[in-house]
Amino acid sequence: MANEIRFKLNGSEIVYTGNPSMRLVEYLRGEKQLTGTKIGCKQGECGACSVIMDSELVNSCLVAMGRVNGAEVTTIEGYSKTEKFAALDKAFESVSAVQCGFCIPGMVLASESLLASNPHPTEEEIREGISGNLCRCTGYNSIVKAIEIAAEEGSGLW
Amino acid sequence: MKAISKSVPKRDHAAKISGSAVYVGDHPTDDLLFGRMLRSTKARARVLGVKLPVLPEGYFFIDKNDVPGDNEVHIILDDNPVFVEEIAEHIGDVIGVLAGTDEREVNILLKQIEVDYEELEPVFDPRKSDVAFFDFGYEKGDAEKAFAEADKIYEEDFETGLQEHMYLETNGIIAEFKDGKMYVRGSLQCPYFVHRAVMKATGLSSENVSVTQDVIGGAFGGKEDFPSILGCQVAVAAYKTKKPVRVVFDRHEDIEGTSKRHPSFCNYKAAVKDGQVTALEIDVLYDAGAYATMSMVVLQRGIIGCGGVYNVPNLKVRGQARKTNTVPNGAFRGFGGPQVFFAIEMLMTHIAKDLQMDSVDFKLKHVAKHNDLTSTSGRFHFPVPIPAMVKDITEASGYYSKKEAYKNQSGRFRRGIGLAAVYHGAGFTGNGERDLIKAVVQLRKDRDDNVEILTAITEMGQGVNTAFIKIVAQELGLPPERVILVPPDTARVPDSGPTVASRSVMTVGELLRRAAIRLKAEWRDGEEQLIEEHYKHPEYMIPFEMPAFRGDAYPTYSWAVNAVEVEIDTYTGFIDILGAWGSFDAGTPIDENIVIGQMEGGFLQSIGYAMMEKMTADKGYIRNNNFSDYIIPTAVDVPNMQVKLHVEDFPLGPYGAKGAGELPHVGGAPAVAEAIQNALGVNLHKIPFLAEDVMDVLRRKGGI
Amino acid sequence: MVKGIIAKSLRDALELRKDSTFVPYIGGTDLMVEADENKSYLFLHQVPEMKNIAEDEEFIRFGAACTFTEIIKNPLSPMILKQACRQIGAPAVRNMGSIGGNIGNGSAKADSALICMVTDSKLRLASADSERIVPIKDFYLGRKKLNLNPDELIIEILMPKHGLENYYHEKVGARKALAISRVSFAGIMDIKNGVIQNNATAFGAVSDVIIRLDTIDNMLIGKTIEEAKKLRGDYIQAIGDAIVPTRGRVGIEYRKDVCINLLKSFLEVSGI
Q1: pTM across the whole model
Q2: Ranges of each domain in chain C
């Protein structure tokens, strides 16, 4: 096989020929300046680096570039151009769920991932869906509320 | 609710949720040197020499010999050196910075540096330390007499542990020295703290240092004193290299190398006569860590609050912050309060139990009233809403019926409920605002009649920018989009003091309100105008005398009542939080969502502090240095938290607002602890209290 | 130097595995915690033969590269395995983490490996030249020591299909999600016509490897409930004597107490 990694990033075809052992998050932030993906721990424990890969939420700190081969990756920069983002954006704004904001891009993508598989989640399912995304500011209530609102107001989008 | 309280979209919302907000780590790396700290691996040692590998071109090592000004970080005692001068005082003490163009190369080179140490005897236990950075005491009434006349005397010891801020964004600073001026930016709460510290370390004059805030990914006090240290280190590196230098910590380094909440050891003696606590004798000991940094102020708040919300006529208090060879502890939301409020709240429940009274009823018998004397013989100048808040929370939580129902339990799972009543003194302690801070704010109107707010207050997610904009827009009758507010740069904004002490809205917000009223009165269409407003001390305040600790410690108080219900798994020790109820009085909320968000976030931190967040230094080395070893709550851990606001207006705060940010981090922990002790049927004296502690209790009791 | 390589078929993977400098990489959720850019990985996520979940007469067969999310969603997966997988990390970890990786990392805290142990699952291991099936208990030799040759890969997990209905599983973490096991326990009690057909227990996060004391568990096999009740004390005592927790972040006494409490609870719900 060729030592060449092909994948889609926010809709664009990418051919990556660098180190396959590099973390996806380093690539996104360093080589692509997609700094909406944050680094909180580099251990898969905080969720600040969450991105969507092949429709599933992943911690981009725990993904080596080789693993990205053949995948489709969406970061907050790509997602923020969608209608679904607009629904989440509005809902988060309406309850002031964004405090320091560092967890928020990951939290929004976790919300997307949850709603994509479960468009009308219960409160418990929402909490479970974002349980890998740590937030130290809000106590989570407002974020959970925002996702409930988005699910209701954005009904039909997911 | 007043009109101003109606929530509006937060000013910082859009940039943050779309990922476009620029945090310190997000600036492009092209011209930046990447810096990493060379840290002491010894808890106490004389640094005899540093042997560097051959550094390639573009790589620099910066240490004490490169500090152009004083090798001291200006905080309070200025005892923290910029770089180790001779003796490293804790593991992680910074000996130097290695800076270079390539991050990987810097990491490789850093590992090749050899440090020659002469090891010295460290001290890790503050109880065994003979260096007290601060030793305060005060008295009220005649404690000795009250103890002599008591029916019964209780004496108990209480301990609280380290708590790590765990802001999601680690500390980071960029500094650049260009054309004789030092530009510092980063994740920092208090631009003027860093400004003054960098001036001292570089020897540069005020106008040649500019400090700017980047978007902050959470702080909670963790970016109050610490950025002064990091700021000086990075600024000196930039001074030497003549290039912009950035240091952003990884998580391990942030946890191991930055400040935390002070561990405490408190001894409480209570005199009880006729079922009433007549006197308290309290000895407070805070573990300051290796340098004094903020410990003086943290300790002051601790010893002022150590009697809780109660009117105890006779007090004798001593408080010390002692040195240990561990990373210096500093500011953390609640600022010296959580440790002592835990202690007094537990003590009150223990005495109540001994007197066969319900703990809430016993506490209510002692709660201070409007115009009563405070611990420092000042006055509660405004109504004390605790009884009404207790009523609200006992009803909302079903406190009394649950407490009754949980008296005789059997089986694997045991429940308990606890309730705590607390305050947080709003704003700076004593005469700090008048004598030290002397806050200034400005409003600048441009020719298009847009108005810019100029203060040194930083937005870190707590919503202060939105609150300021609302205040100014309301007074001027302008739509909020006509009010400009950008992150502070000390070259542009006056010194309105640090973003700490729950003072921003209450104190600086009020200055802005007054400035806006003046601007409106003097408004001239199409003209540039500048309005400046200065702090005025409340006239009713009884001057605070130091070192006697006598007078009004705070202009007013914010109040909270918290109840927490737990279920304990007696097979595994697991503590499950079934419910958390909080009533919070921070005066009129300038924005309801924002204040509720502050209360919920702080309350959860406080619950974590009591039953989840454990950090220990093993011979000075912190092993809980990541998110898997230092556990903070996730979204599923406290699913049922209900917060309501009680409003007791403060006439001197804008629209009645008073301090909010720290209030929720005071009462959650004692409420959790009381719930646990009720479920287990034992008295608790320490937090954090974890599953292992539960099992220890059960083992000692021989089952439940 | 080639820093990593992506296998597209099993043959491809096993051929590449001959070069033992490559570290097998499926989900990466354990490997990448200590990521080292100088390491070379053999990426196995695109090997179709390792992604199947199928059944035969005797076993449910899980391809080693199946993620926890895939296992949870698949109707063939036994409930006991689903329950354990649901408690691993949080969604993002379950989306990437794999059963093969969980077993192959050798940790005694591995939550899906605990279920493989208590069910006496088998592992299909293969190299380019050979193939063998190993009971999982014989796969763990000691702390981080595996019965796996440098040229072998874990290809498939064979979990017995029958007798898993009466199961017991508890994971004790420091919080309710995103938790690493501090103690984990799984038990299976298969009773037919009042006689114990199978009794199996496994204890995770206690020792260097997951503890599976089958010879002691066998004490109860073939016994009626009444007979088992009489043996209960001796059985608990024997298990308790055999469990010697290794030093760790979580206290030894704590882990031991919890193990015994959960074992008792397992017996209690089984009517013993």
Answers
A1: 0.98
A2: 49-160, 167-269
